[in-house]
Design brief:
Elements lengths: L6 H6 L4 H11 L10 E7 L2 E7 L8 E6 L2 E6 L22 E6 L4 E9 L2 E8 L24 H11 L1
Antiparallel strand pairs: 1-2, 2-7, 3-4, 4-5, 6-7
């Protein structure tokens, strides 16, 4: 992977610390973060979906936690029942513990999750508060006097009053 020197950006940018941290974190990404395999798709303008292949896991063995802008998906298989131990001739379905963290943009929230046919689906939606949404500002259409509020007109009015 290429490495980027973001030091020059620190000298001229304020408030982008989180972005720089994400860039640094991407450089240090571990190879193990590719398991279990997953897809991230954009479903609509403000809706996203993460689909993870978690064959062999049940809903009570998977934990989803959102803390601020981080979504943690972890899975841990329960120990097999001791009464009916299984004897595998070939064991190809991975049942190892996993921990995957997704960095979410501001105001992105988990709206639902489901586990069907070995696929964990996590639905996300960006919900920007009304106070932070762009708003149209009306322009007052009344016209100002001939000088359009310039200072000389005000000075002439004061001179006549004196």
């Amino acid at each position: 992977m290429r490495t980027y020197d973001v030091a020059p950006l620190f000298r001229s940018s304020v408030g982008f610390d989180r972005l720089f941290d994400l860039l640094s974190q991407a450089e240090r990404a571990e190879a193990s973060s590719a398991w279990p395999p997953y897809d991230i798709e954009k479903v609509a303008d403000d809706a996203y979906r993460i689909t993870m292949a978690v064959a062999g896991f049940t809903p009570d063995e998977i934990e989803l936690t959102q803390h601020n802008t981080a979504l943690l998906v972890s899975g841990q298989k329960r120990s097999p029942e001791r009464e009916n131990p299984r004897q595998y001739l070939h064991h190809g379905i991975a049942a190892r513990t996993f921990r995957q963290t997704f960095n979410l943009a501001d105001h992105v929230k988990v709206t639902g999750a489901s586990l069907e046919n070995g696929l964990l689906t996590v639905d996300l939606k960006r919900e920007v508060p009304e106070a932070l949404k762009p708003r149209r500002i009306a322009i007052d259409d009344r016209q100002v006097a001939a000088g359009q509020g310039n200072a000389p007109a005000a000075i002439e009015d004061r001179a006549k009053a004196a």
